[in-house]
## 1
Amino acid sequence: MIITTTSMIEGTPIRQYLGIATGEVIMGANVFRDFKASITDLVGGR
């Protein structure tokens, strides 16, 4: 069984459409500041 999010697979017939897959992501307010801090830790800086 091949599961994919594309509408077609070359050379393979589509047997069943299961519907649209959805998801949600909740990111904290400080995610960008934390990302920048991790880069700074890696390369150095103030």
## 2
Amino acid sequence: MNDVEILSTITLTRINTFHLTSLLELYRKLGSATAILEHRNNIRDVVPDASDRLVGSLKNIDDAWQRAEAELRYDRSHGIEPLVMGDPRYPQRLKECDDAPLLLYYKGSTDLNAKRIICIVGTRKCTVYGQDMIRRFVADLRRLCPDVLIVSGLAYGVDIHAHRNALQQGLDTVGVLAHGLDYLYPQSHRADAEAMVRQGGLLTEFPVNTPADKKNFVRRNRIVAGMSDACILVESAAKGGGLITCDIARSYDRDVFAFPGRVGDEMSEGCNNIIRDNVAGLISSATDFVSAMGWQTDEQLQQARQQGIEREMFPDLTDEERTVVEELRKDNDQQINMLTVRTDIAIGRLTAVLFSLEMKGVVKTLAGGAYHLIN
């Protein structure tokens, strides 16, 4: 990406006239930050209803441009990469969102467009139960999906435990910050952050000299949610930042999951509530999650194709599995209660048969619990 586009983008983000969505709308209309600045003296030719304030701010960009030049000099000397929206390294999942930032500052080594990306969020008062859930989940996820990237906010509690367990398991992990990359909050996580730069990265939309103000944490949550395929809530009180991230993820049509907790436990109340209200899917393990996402099915199919197995023949199925497959051939996407009637397999046994078929990449579960035969 050329320096003119980078400097133009930094300059635009330094002009506080813009609302996030209106800035993105203008960017998409003209195709680049450079084009916006090229039209700064006749912006109403492009946006007829542009406000007087917007027109005035675009005509006086000298100070913002100088600060952009200073920012770029700092970034280049400190290993920070400014990622503008047109850069292929910019998180493409996030790019789809209506309030995506035009610019991100990145310091790290991982691919922000990895095949599989999840965010793990929750309370800053993570209990022993929550820590155990994270430890088991990340360890099992490493076995099932060794290429997954784990994103969180580097905060106390759930965030830092997610990052640390990812590092321990050899998974890349990215921390999305609520301030510039010239310092770190909290300072106690500096060693973790340094390890993450080597095995993941640090990401923010904020330039240097931006403090960790309260409002910035809410803004950074949309990046955590937007760059991920799915959001997992480990523990949360009835109100909290993790729930905000889940709401944002839902608004972006991302999958949301939560670990249930014991009734009456303060730090499980938020999880239990969003499961009850059908905002999040209930999971108790990495296997639950991978199955719900259909990720293991994809791996099974890919492996089968590589080995030259003809999918239509299903050569390694048991008699019961073949019975289920034949029934789904006749009428796909059936609930388990209907399948048990039509196959004459007891429901307890049928559950095990269906699980085996999922592991073999033959069927997958759909929203609502129906089973789908993969063609």
## 3
Amino acid sequence: MGRTTPAVLTYRRADGTPERFSLQHDVTTLGRSPSCSVVIPLPTISRLHARVELQYDRYVLFDAGSANGTFVNGKRIEQGYQLSTGDTIWLGDEQACLLFSDPEETLTIQAASLPPALFIDEDARHVAVYGVAVQLSPLEYDLLLHLAHHPGTVCTRQGCFLAVWGQPYDHATCEDALNACISKLRRNLRVAAESAGREPPPIRTIQRIGFRLDADVTFAAGREHTASLTHKAREA
């Protein structure tokens, strides 16, 4: 096929550890069976659930007659689907979520137009880092959205907690929850950035004050107050 670097599927385990599968063969099988190329032992996944075929230097995903279906970006596929960097694949449901990244495709895209460091579609509650979809919990998403609406600006702990939990911040009882949320948010941004071969959008901790997002932020059109909003990152 003339391909130098194979595409990669990234699966995040229950403990948050990313596991990467290189699509080195013309056909890669996914399922619960140990005989599959990509094995995810979850009860909602069929023994042979799906397959990825390399066709004319592009990767095409097929459902293999699974019981619970195969989804791309939240939509169930009924026939072959040509994958692109940033596509999110669900096997059965969102518990088995894989991110697709094709380094050779990304190089082609970057030569023409580099995907934004951080893209947010508020209507769809979709977040992408350099074109790679990010899986966030509702709390993590609300925290990121609050920081993204004030890029390059220090957001206080009080303001962050109120934006996410809708309650006043008390240092003694709220600090651990906020610290855990910011830590998980950073980790998930890092996983997506690593899939794209880039550095994650930095969220700086300002001691005893709060946090600051130092990254380009691009919002999807559709909301007047966010359309075409892009903020250049400050130099740390």
